[in-house]
Write a sequence for this structure.
């Protein structure tokens, strides 16, 4: 595959009418190495954040050996790419057939659950042909924790309440080789304290249930860097998590796991879009709510942007975007900071779209197409380069390039 130096070179070569996804394998590899080497336990890549075979392979090559999968399609995809990877089926609600195929066909031994019914389903689906119960299961009980310190809540859908956890932990202990507790503090956790309050809840659950716990899985939520959201260094998260994990009443051989999605792939992709029309401070571009900019539309996420024209001379001003579909909701409030003289026919690069961006493009209204190329320059921001601006000095760093 041809590798371009940067987005401007792609525009010069292709003058693309449709959006172009730019992938940076070196950025994903750097994130993978960082977690593999610095997280004080095992790092499972949460595949849903970007389920492309390419990034799964890149992360494996960088030392990430475990993958958090949430559907049988993700199980099949990762197993197809990586015959030797360890897959963990961490969606607490699965069909019996999905569990059976994962276990018997793809060698998946790790499952999460948050009800007795799901436990019974897993036990039944993993029996051998002669009816014997599986003896090699790792079962993790998902605990509900607060999302108060995160930008995107995951607190209401999954997880058993602390008050009800003891009987489920005790029942699960009867059916597994290794018992774990997992949780998710919500995505883009802006402070390590998010994990402290969750681990305190884990402590209470263990004490109440009086069971031996072999795995503590702190889930995802590790942040990336966006305009107006500059998190502390990931090393701070790792240190706080490690310290509180070590103080839990668990056996000395217990394992610490995490499930980063966003943090491993946010820097992997950006997107080139074309301005098709300008109306005041609104730009009509060729990607939007049904494309890679789902979060920009639906939760008003701000992504860093850069105009790709050399001849724009005016200062930056605030713009909103409209996407290409005929739906009024295809609107991204921003603000996105671009030169005041930008106009129809100009190209923009939108950064930090590797997580929950490029992966979420749909074909709605005929606008799904996008070319995909590799580029070798740096992402617009990085948590892994050691040059991040101290958030106390700037609370709104649009570009670190
Ligand atoms: C989505 C998800 C993750 C990844 O979350 P990030 O915030 O992207 O790190 C991890 N674990 C589970 C169970 C998830 O649903």
């Amino acid at each position: 595959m041809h590798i371009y130096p940067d987005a401007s070179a792609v525009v010069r070569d292709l003058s693309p009418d449709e959006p172009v996804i730019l992938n940076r394998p070196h950025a994903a590899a750097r994130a993978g190495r960082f977690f593999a080497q610095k997280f004080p336990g095992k790092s499972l890549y949460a595949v849903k954040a970007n389920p492309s075979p390419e990034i799964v392979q890149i992360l494996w090559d960088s030392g990430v050996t475990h993958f958090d999968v949430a559907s049988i399609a993700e199980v099949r995809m990762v197993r197809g790419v990586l015959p030797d990877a360890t897959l963990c089926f961490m969606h607490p609600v699965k069909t019996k057939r999905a569990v059976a195929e994962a276990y018997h066909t793809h060698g998946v031994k790790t499952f999460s659950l948050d009800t007795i019914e799901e436990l019974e389903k897993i036990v039944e689906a993993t029996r051998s042909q002669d009816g014997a119960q599986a003896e090699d299961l790792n079962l993790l009980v998902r605990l509900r924790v607060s999302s108060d310190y995160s930008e995107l809540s995951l607190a209401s859908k999954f997880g058993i309440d602390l008050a009800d956890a003891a009987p489920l932990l005790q029942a699960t202990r009867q059916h597994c080789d290794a018992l774990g507790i997992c949780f998710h503090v919500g995505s883009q956790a802006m402070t390590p304290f998010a994990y402290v309050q969750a681990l305190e809840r884990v402590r209470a659950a263990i004490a109440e249930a009086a069971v031996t716990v072999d795995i503590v899985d702190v889930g995802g939520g590790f942040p990336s860097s966006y305009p107006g959201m500059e998190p502390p260094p990931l090393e701070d998260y790792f240190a706080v998590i490690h310290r509180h994990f070590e103080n839990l009443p668990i056996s000395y051989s217990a394992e610490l796991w995490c499930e980063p999605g966003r943090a491993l792939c946010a820097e992997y992709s950006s997107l080139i879009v074309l301005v098709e029309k300008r109306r005041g401070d609104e730009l009509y571009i060729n990607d939007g709510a049904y494309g890679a900019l789902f979060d920009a539309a639906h939760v008003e996420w701000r992504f860093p942007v850069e105009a790709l024209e050399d001849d724009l001379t005016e200062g930056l001003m605030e713009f909103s975007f409209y996407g290409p579909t005929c739906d009024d909701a295809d609107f991204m409030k921003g603000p996105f900071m671009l030169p005041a003289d930008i106009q129809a026919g100009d190209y923009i690069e939108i950064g930090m779209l590797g997580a929950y961006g490029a992966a979420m493009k749909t074909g709605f209204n005929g606008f799904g197409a996008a070319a995909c190329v590799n580029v070798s320059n740096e992402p617009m921001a990085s948590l892994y380069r050691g040059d991040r601006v101290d958030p106390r000095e700037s609370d709104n760093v649009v570009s670190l390039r």
About this structure: The two ends are 25 Å apart (CA to CA). The chain has two domains: 3-22+269-375, 40-259. Confidence is low (pLDDT under 50) at residues 391-401. Residues 46, 48-49, 68, 90, 184, 187, 219-222, 259-263 surround pyridoxal-5'-phosphate (CB under 6 Å).
